[in-house]
């Protein structure tokens, strides 16, 4: 009996690619150039005890000291964003703030392409941070810079408790950030959104290791590359901390991105733009293929750079230009 002809695979949506010059942050990023340590210490006096001189004689901190990194982040948030109370439990991920800010500025530019070049601001813009973590860094910066309202989602009650303590300790954040638990670790979006909710953008820094052992090996390689492996010195196992859900998941980054692509199609009517960081370059092409099968209509691949570190931001939508214009008219006017 003759077999029916195979349906041709839908081609991947044409990707719009952009990339900054090497080492450059987004033009609106507040963290350009060298840090003003006297100003940082004024904003957060406790930083003073951690300041050292780097090999070039310039003030810096010891990035191998988790406590120093945490206090440094606290000072950055106080000086640049007005966040006066910020803390995370020991062992949780302490994020590099300039790179996290870059992600948000690039998302703001993406929304502006659907708004005649103007960045939509204010609490009418609803953002969903998938994996908000204990530090809540994306909602903090995103609300400060653009006034957006955030939903911060996580599977870990302890991480949400830490994020909630940060929000409650800062009066300016009251009503700006809602924290919500994803009760099923097997899902990303499914079961998280309410039926009548509309989300303008989602963001995510996915776990990129497949196991705790993989995460430890990766950190060891990073220290070796930085020339910091000193047998006489005890270094942290993970250079910026991190709990299980923050750093690894079964199948690693690729498996998480595949699940995210598939589930984004299931909530496509409720969301304008989805996005995720992608740490491994080879996973970008894989994600494009999964998005094509899911039916995405447009994909943007944005390169980001901080010092020697290169990363990728992938954003996608299931709405065509006319549908995005209708979304703007209904929500952003």
UniProtKB/TrEMBL annotation:
Annotated keywords: Cytoplasm, Methyltransferase, rRNA processing, S-adenosyl-L-methionine, Transferase
Region feature Disordered, mapped onto this chain: 1-31
E.C. numbers: 2.1.1.181
Chief location bin: cytoplasm
Enzyme class: transferase
UniProt-listed PANTHER family: RNA N6-ADENOSINE-METHYLTRANSFERASE METTL16, SAM-DEPENDENT METHYLTRANSFERASE
The protein, known as: Ribosomal RNA large subunit methyltransferase F
Naturally occurring in which organism (per UniProt): Ectopseudomonas khazarica
